[in-house]
Give the backbone structure.
Amino acid sequence: MTLLHTLFHDPAPRSVRLSVAMAEGLSLPDGPICVLRPRAGEQFDPLPMDRLQMVQGFAPDHAALQAAGHSVSVTPAPAPNALICLPRAKAEGLGLIAQAVAGGAQCVMVDGQKTDGVESVLKAVRQRVEVSGVVSKAHGKLFWFTPGIERFAEWQLAPQPVSDPDYGAFQTMPGLFSAGEIDPASRLLAEYLPDTLPAIMADLGAGWGYLAAACLARKGIEALHLIEAEAAALELARTNVPDPRAQFHWTDATQPLSLPPVGGVVMNPPFHTGRTPQPALGLAFIESAARLLTGRGQVWMVANRHLPYEKTLAERFGQYQVLAETGAFRVWHASGPRSRSAHTPSRQRRERSR
């Protein structure tokens, strides 16, 4: 597993709830079972693996599910059965239900932890259709229903427009980072970017493209690589950043990237898994930036001010400084990336120092 899906993975015992549901009378029509937003490492017993069609647009989970032998796609195909693995954003979860119904599902299963808001989603479904069964187990719930003639069209996900006086109009989507608004940390970072940037740049964790647009408004850029793990966000970025200098990469920014060295990196790295802070994500982004940059390369980064990034910046860069600080955020600038050997003592040197 890569760092992104390891940290974001919630090992909810879906298979336990599925087993109980099958014992209590859940019966699935013949044909494929479309599983929307499954996570790496999850088990789906007793569902037959050869009928499962995994749909996952988050690159690390997508790759891990493929490696586990599943059939995986980014967009769903019509199927008579659907299992919704609830995300934390309620609007996204309702949108997945609408997507499954629109795809012809005769049996729709919805599974989630209490922290995923499954109770609220169950209540919303019950206002539209009779729920066939509910299993409560392991701090979560699985329920299922037959859509019949009920309509869920109002739950279909739709783009949410936002605008910026400097960089124009953008489209966002429920469930994505900074949906329906421009993230204040990204806006702060954009304010402190220099007027001229290196010719070849990368935006790590580019999301739907706000920082990329801010970079391309500067002078000097000949190519900008947008690195994003979430396929839906990257697809919006293609629309939001139509500049021919932009190049789009659906991949995990915490892993080694198949790119030539770049002169500059901009990033607003994630640091939460749900509500739990995970500074390791930001540290991994810093490591990736250091690996990707040329010897004179520079990085501009924004982060919550309490996050412990300074030690890693000091280890991986010859120079670093705080460009701006508010009550919530810090904007960092670092340059001169060091190789790991430049700051990590060898085993022999450590043994001699004992």
Observations:
- The first strand starts at residue 33 and ends at 36.
- The domain at 3-155 is CATH 3.40.50.150 (Rossmann fold).
- The first helix runs from residue 3 to 8.
- The two ends are 35 Å apart (CA to CA).
